[in-house]
Amino acid sequence: MSQKAEIRPDLVWPTDVTDVPKEVFVREDIFEQELEDIFYGPYWHPVAHEAEIPNPGDFKLFDLGRVPLLIARGDDNVVRVFINACSHRGNQVETSPCGNSKGFECPYHRWSFKNDGSLLNCPGSEDFSPKFSKEKYGLKEVKQQNLYGLILVTLSDNPPEFNDWVGRTAETIKNQIGHEGGLKLLGYQKVKYASNWKAYMDNDGYHAPLLHTGFRLLGWQSGGGRQFYTEHCHGGAESQLKPGKSMGVLKDESLIEFKDADWDSGSFVSGLFPITIMVKHLDCISIRFAIPRSVDSTEVHYAYFAKNDDSEEMALHRVRQASNLLGPCGMISMEDAAIFQRIQIGSHSPGVATFQKGVKDLHTIPTDILQNDETTNIPRWEYYRKLMGFHKEGEA
Ligand code: FES
Ligand SMILES: [Fe+2]
């Protein structure tokens, strides 16, 4: 997609599974290669949920790496994903982050497109070159898949078979967003973290009770459950819910009530490789769509949803939980932003970041993934190392 570097970045990876070279968080050449290999490579990337654009004519913009996308529901009610660049000279066609429109007009030479992407008008076309025809110059459509309303795209000509790629994560996602009556969008919190995208994704279970004051004060620990990790580097956790205890810190205890949750299997977190996190916890349903902006900047759009058939009171309850608990400034998780930035600053120093908690063997990738450990992070780094072609010390 971008200009490919002639020389791939090189990096010697340490032999101990605990260690990750800090360089991967700060090197520009590695970031550029990641865009090519991962974000424009043979993977499926969530870019929207169809509940964000529920009506004919609705659209939203999103970027896959640096590639601008326009996700639009046509008048025919079909959701399509286009490259947000004019088929004439490549000008960005739409600039509003979301809206509703019968079509899109490029301001440069006024070519206009219907909301199904077809070219409607192009002034002066009687003088266009012999190769021109309106049919050939619609907006360029991107391959997509739909999983319980989640729209995933790929720019690769050879993407993996979708069901194989998503694997058992599909079950967790069904439990998160597969509500029969569908979802409705409540709103967004959008934030830019001053960190590399991998530092954002490298969050672990070990840190929560230590870093997060709100986590401790609200007695925020999930009960027993299952964790999993797939061969394509997706991960998930399904846990019993435990009631939080406000220990007198909340004026209104109803904030942490469960009003629509199954206590035995009520908390679901999943991470789809490389950068999408989905959470259904308490009565909060959220998808975090992320964009790696640069080597040291990651933008995350926290989209929050209610169920379509929720009462007004229930939807309001979800809004309060969404904005106050697990978002970028939520009571449970607000310190994360500072930590992401401090990791980024600290990574401009030699050496390795190291995982300790739960690691029993320095040369075996752990497969028993436990809550509150750092072992979950290790298979993800090994998948990344192989994908990027970084050799281990002493390997040919
Ligand atoms: S670049 Fe869009 S009309 Fe010319
Ligand atoms: Fe956290």
TrEMBL record:
Can you give the residue ranges of the Rieske domain?
44-142
SUPFAM superfamilies with a match to the protein in the record: Bet v1-like, ISP domain
Query: Would I find Metal-binding among this entry's keywords?
Result: yes
Which keywords fit this entry according to its UniProt record?
2Fe-2S, Iron, Iron-sulfur, Metal-binding, NAD, Oxidoreductase
Q: Which GO terms describe its molecular function?
A: 2 iron, 2 sulfur cluster binding; iron ion binding; oxidoreductase activity
Which PROSITE patterns does the UniProt record give?
RIESKE, RING_HYDROXYL_ALPHA
Cofactor list: Fe cation
- One Pfam family of this chain: Rieske
InterPro entries reported for this sequence: ARHD_Rieske_2Fe_2S (IPR015881), Rieske_2Fe-2S (IPR017941), Rieske_2Fe-2S_sf (IPR036922), Ring_hydroxy_dOase_asu_C_dom (IPR015879), Rng_hydr_dOase-A (IPR001663)
PANTHER family attached to this UniProt entry: CHOLINE MONOOXYGENASE, CHLOROPLASTIC
Question: Know the name of this protein?
Answer: Rieske 2Fe-2S domain-containing protein
